[in-house]
Structures are given as C-alpha cells and as structure tokens.
Amino acid sequence: MKLQGTFSVHASRERVFSFLLNPNDLSACIDDAHTIDILDADRFRGTLRSGIGPVKGNFTWSATVAERVPGERARIKVHGSGMGSAFDIDATIELHEATGSTTAAWRADVTLSGTLASLGARLMQTTIDKKTNAFFSNVREQLERA
C-alpha cells in the first residue's frame, strides 16, 4: 500500500526537521497508547495499542533512520508485529521552506501481513487516513505552539 500527503506548518525547515527526527517529540503526537525506547540517534523501539476497525491489540515495533539529510529529507524504516499480524513501513519526508512556513511532503510504502492484511481495503484506508491526519495535526500544533 502506498500512502502520501503534505502538510504545512509555520516553523523553519530546520526546526521541523529536528522535531520529526526526535523520537520524544514524535511520541507526543501519537494518539494511541504507546511506549518508546531510544536505543541511539538512529534506532528506537516501543509498543503501540491500536487497531483497525474491530481488530485492536498490542504491537511491538522497531524503527531505524535509514537516511538523514539535515533540513531537507529523512527516511525511516519501521517493522512491527502483534495480534497475528506484521507490518513494514518505509517512509520518506522532504521539507521545503517558503516565507516563514515549511511544507513537508511525505510518502510511505506499507506492507501488511496476517490479520490486518485480511481486512477490507476501504476500512483500512479510512482508519489509516484518520490516524495519519491526527498525527500531522498534532505535529503542527506542537511546532506552532513553541
């Protein structure tokens, strides 16, 4: 499954980049119950209680920053599993600044297997859109509050 989108925020490109690559800052933007452990500057892991439609449960995940071009672009790979399912995410974000605001263009290749993969595409897309929009809304709120 391929996902993509953009969001704009009234903050400098450098501030947005720093925020998006700080696991503690990102953690504050996730609405679902979760934990996060920072292993080093490029690796972190945790747990997440989430789901799609009626299928909800606990997942463990690990993430690696696969590419980092300060102020411009980053690529993060995530692997997770739980409830008889697994997911892999390869996400890239590119930042562009213009007149006091930054636009972030993001895309993610998501691979699901197990129970989650068997859910209907319509149900899955609706839930993913809702969670993604909430996450980026929280990012914008956190960045513009400071």
Brief overview:
With 146 residues, this protein is an alpha+beta fold. It has one domain (2-145): Alpha-D-Glucose-1,6-Bisphosphate, Chain A, domain 4 (2-Layer Sandwich). Helix content is 26%, strand content 54%.
What does this protein structure show overall?
By secondary structure, the protein is of the alpha+beta class. It has a single domain, classed as START domain (Alpha-D-Glucose-1,6-Bisphosphate, Chain A, domain 4). Helix content is 26%, strand content 54%. It has a seven-stranded antiparallel sheet with strand order 1-7-6-5-4-3-2. The mean pLDDT is 90.
The arrangement of helices and strands along the chain is EHHEEEEEEH
Question: Number of DSSP strands?
Answer: 7
Rg over CA atoms? 15 Å
Helix content: 25-40%
pLDDT average, as an integer?
90
CATH homologous superfamily (4th level) name? START domain
Number of helices: 3
Strand order of the largest sheet: 1-7-6-5-4-3-2
User: Which ranges are low-confidence, i.e. pLDDT below 50, for 5 or more consecutive residues?
Assistant: none
Q: What CATH architecture do you see?
A: 2-Layer Sandwich
Determine and state the CATH class: Alpha Beta
| Secondary structural class | alpha+beta
Largest sheet: 7 strands, antiparallel
What best-fitting shape do the alpha-carbon axes yield?
Answer: globular
User: How many angstroms does the end-to-end distance come to?
Assistant: 34 Å
Question: Within the CATH hierarchy, at the fold level, what is the topology?
Answer: Alpha-D-Glucose-1,6-Bisphosphate, Chain A, domain 4
Name the beta content range: over 45%
User: How many domains in all?
Assistant: 1
